Amino acid sequence: MTVLELIERSSARLEASGVSFATAPTNAFDEAAWLVLWRLGLPLDSLDAHAARNVSAGEQAPPSPRAAAHHQPPPAAYLTGEAWLRGVPFFRRRGGSSCRDR
User: Fold this and answer.
1) What pLDDT, on the 0 to 100 scale, is given for residue 47?
2) pTM for the whole thing?
3) How many domains, in total, are found in the chain?
4) Which residue range forms the structural domain that includes residue 29?
5) What average pLDDT values come out for the chain (102 residues) when binned by 10 residues?
């Protein structure tokens, strides 16, 4: 499976789950791309460069066991502990409910 195929599969699963997108990213494909690229340790703006890269079975595992435990998956920022706004990274504090610049 390639990076792009994994993103497409993940996007379909997000759409099927009925999650809503209130903040960036605003659609299932972009959310899936962000999660997959983050999980693989790739730059978040590098989809074109890595779309055809093969992804091993181990790399396809969910980013967090917590994600599978929720009926409705939390936003990517809660899974990864980070978010980006116009190229500026924000990181979620442990035990906190908001993102703050490091």
Assistant:
1) 93
2) 0.63
3) 1
4) 3-56+72-100
5) 94 84 78 89 92 90 53 65 73 57 46
Helix (H/G/I), strand (E/B), else coil: 54: strand
Q: What is the CA 6 to chain-centroid distance, rounded?
A: 12
Return the amino acid letter for 13.
Answer: R
- What sign for the dihedral angle of Cα 36, 39, 63, 22? negative
The structure tokens 């730059």 sit at 43
Q: Which stretch of DSSP H or E encloses residue 49?
A: helix 47-50
Q: Is residue 64 part of a domain?
A: no
Phi, psi for 54 (deg, rounded to 5): -75, 140
Amino acid letter for position 7: I
CATH number at residue 82: 1.10.8
Alpha carbon distances (Å) from 60 to 13, 27, 39, 43, 51: 14, 21, 9, 17, 14
